[in-house]
Amino acid sequence: MRYRNTTLAAATLLVLSMSSCAPSTDTGEPSGAAGTWPSYTLPDGSLSFEHRPDWTVEEVQSLANDPAGGVSVQVNDAGGDLIAQLDTGIITGLVCDDPDEAAQYVEYDSEPMPELDSAQGTDQRFVYRSVAFSTPERGEPVATYAVISELGDRGQCGLFDFFTFTESSGGRFAGRYSGEDTVPGQSYLDGAAAYEDSAEFRDVKRMLVSLRDKD
To answer: Which residues form the signal peptide (predicted)?
Structure first.
């Protein structure tokens, strides 16, 4: 399995990570955005989402740490590269002893998701955003697209890409802009800003925004 986009959590009680290696491309060809997309429902029936017909969804080993359980699935593009991962049954919290008050936080796109209910009463939304830390020691710039609960984080502790779901836990439906499609002389953040205008991003957003709870 090749991994192109990855998910990112900030410093959390649970650290989840994947590697990234294959580039993102935008050929300008039709992206499949028009028309009806197939719908995928998690094996436990808790959530569903739509995806491009040429993308595939596969169940992987669950990362859940909620005693009630959870499910993990990966969405891969037509070439087999990872687009996003959905995990449920995640109990986590934002732990940040040294916030970077000078971090540069940018939101490129955001959309409310009122149809995704949370038993904890939080507002859910899709967001595509980046953070550039004030010093290299704090980490490299990163841009992610994710479904999140509005908890007020603005990058001082990294990007907390999680949403609340059940009374005891939440989930993560997210991926990372790899930066491997940047052109010479273009910075990672320049590439992240340009990615918003790509056909792939429009399809990624449509997929994430389609996330619904089945209850």
So the answer is: 1-22
